[in-house]
Amino acid sequence: MLGYSRLRLSALKHNVLHKYKDENYHSVLISANPLIVPWAGFEASYNIIIDPITSTMLTDDAISIDTEAQELGGRTSFILYNLRKKNISKLVKAAQLYLIRRLKTFPRHLSEYFVREKGGGLAVSLAKSLRLEEPFFLFVNLMESHNPYNRLGDEKKLNCATLKWLLTGNINPQDRRFWRTYSHHAERATRRAIELVSTILQRADRSNTLIIVTSDHGELLGDGGLYHVYSLKDGNIRVPLYVKYPEGWKKKKQKTYIPLTDIPKILDPSTDTIGSHLVLAETFGVHFSDLFFQECGLEKQPADLFYHKIRILGNKVDILFNKTLEQVEYAKGEQAQEVLRKLLH
Fold first, then answer.
1. Which of 283, 300, 293, 211 is nearest to 247 (CA)?
2. pLDDT higher than 80, residue 253
3. Full set of structural domains in the chain with CATH
4. How far is it, in rounded angstroms, from Cα 59 to Cα 311?
5. Which of 344 and 282 is assigned the larger pLDDT?
6. Over the stretch 152-168, which tens digit does the pLDDT of each residue have?
């Protein structure tokens, strides 16, 4: 998946990280998201990757050891392989890494309180110490509002609750308890975002700085679903968008909906309008393996969990289209049939 992401991003014309890097901006990536990393195609001039579970920076040694252990099939195979190769120094580094992670994660197995911090504090500290040489482009991905929301030992229970909802369409009222602390995580994420913005405005020329705060997805908290997988419900696809324009920039006109793909237009001072009166959101299926289902005592995941679905939203239009089966699951709104005719013919 990471390799595929890297290939797709390299071919994407609107990859803003590469754009500003190529235009000689001092581009910096700070990410606590294990998917927003250079080896997935998100690469700046200066990359800092944070482990959200331990809230520590990932070093090249740690990344190399993790990659090798994964390729060899696990820690035991990694140890046996390097013993045969007599790579004692690598084994010592791996043992140190394992010990640090165990010490860092131990409190998070005891109390959900310790799970709320997912590297955001470190990201703020890094932003305070970075040399922001103009022109600069800074991209920060915080994970405080993302799961896990409970003690690390409860993560399997949260996943099982999600899978049961996906299979049956029903939510066990007791399963909502795994999301009861979400408000604390959202509050922590908000606080970290405000700290980051304040730090940037203190250190940079605020009259000439553009700031965008948004999210890649939302979360269902029992309001029609759970978690954020394989769902095009409002709780998943409607996310915040806050923009502070530089002085002298004309504020852009906004149409009804603003998709995340319009972010490059916000960065472009020559663009007058952002958004559209008709937008699409899509899902390509769940990411859980059969093993997850087996561990939860559930049957093998059905094929329909991998269906490609598209939701079409607009003024007086709300359509859910199953692309895999070429079927309309629902069509609401006065103009739904007119839009369908244009799309299907």
1. 211
2. yes
3. 2-276 (3.40.720)
4. 40
5. 282
6. 989 889 999 999 998 88
- Helix and strand numbers, DSSP H then E, in the chain: 12, 14
CA angle 282, 285, 231 (to 5 degrees): 60
Q: What is the total residue count of the chain?
A: 345
Q: Identify the helix (H) or strand (E) that includes residue 336.
A: helix 336-344
Average pLDDT estimate for 300-321 = 91
pLDDT > 90: percent of the chain: 65
The answer to whether 38 and 47 have CB atoms below 8 angstroms apart is yes
From 87, 86, 31, select the one nearest 61 (Cα to Cα): 87
**E strand spans, 25-89:** 26-31, 46-51, 56-57
CB atoms within 10 A of CB 246: 13
What share of residues in the chain are helix, strand, coil (percent, to 5)? 45, 20, 35
Separation of alpha carbons 246 and 269, rounded Å = 10
Q: Are 296 and 276 in contact (CB under 8 A)?
A: no
Query: Are the beta carbons of 151 and 177 closer than 8 angstroms?
Result: no
Q: Parallel, antiparallel, or unpaired: how do β-strands 253-254 and 273-274 relate? A: parallel
Residue with tokens 């040489």: 133
R_g of the chain, CA atoms, integer Å: 22
Task: Name the pairing type of β-strands 211-214 and 46-51.
Answer: unpaired
For residue 14, is pLDDT > 70? no
Mean pLDDT rounded to a whole number for the chain:
91
**With the C-alpha atoms ordered 160, 162, 167, 168, is the resulting torsion angle positive or negative?**
positive
Is residue 124 a contact partner of residue 192, using CB atoms and an 8 Å limit? yes
| Residue given tokens 């010990």 in the structure block | 99
Q: How many CB atoms lie within 10 A of CB 283?
A: 18
Name beta bridge partners: 220. Answer: 227
Residues 160-188, mean pLDDT to the nearest whole number:
92
Question: Which residues, in sequence order, are bridge partners of residue 280?
Answer: 312
Q: Which of 138, 124, 129 is nearest to 193 (CA)?
A: 124
Nearest to 249 by CA among 265, 227, 226: 265
CB within 8 Å of 179: residues ≥ 6 apart: 149, 158, 219, 221, 222, 226
